[in-house]
Predict the 3D structure of the following.
Amino acid sequence: LAFARRGAPFTFNPVLYHRDLLTLLSTGAVALPTFEHHVKDPVEEAIHINCQPTSGTDEFGVEVAVVEGLYTMFTGTEQLIEDGNNNPHHQPPTLKPIPIPSAAEIAAWTSCAQLYDLLFVECDITVATERLTKRHMAAWHIPRAEAFERASGSDYDNSVVVQRTAANANIVLRSVDVA
């Protein structure tokens, strides 16, 4: 199920995410995982952040840290997609139900979302699917049809969940194409 629904909220560890954010806030240093698209898997401790205190103070030398990710505004309470019915590209639905977050996971997601100001970049689903198709082609060197199928599958379903988190944002910006 995790492979078929790669990138869905249940494939993340919100408790670890919360711990890492608190570590960054309290110490200014943390090693974070990332997802490497070309290897199709997460890589632990791939991102190292080490903000040294400003000379003569106890404050870190960085005033702004940007935390980017699909579920930075996810609280676990958004209506989750149970199958592919919401995806016009799926006829008939091909995806299995996704697990509902546990109480501990909901608490962790909600706690994470309360640690920072929330900015949502809104993007038309058709535009996002096309961008993902191009990214899949480049990252995995696959034909357009295969890349589009992937972008229209679990990626699409995940994007619907992400779009539902926009209501949690402090600021919503609209994505535009720059030529």
Confidence is low (pLDDT under 50) at residues 81-96.
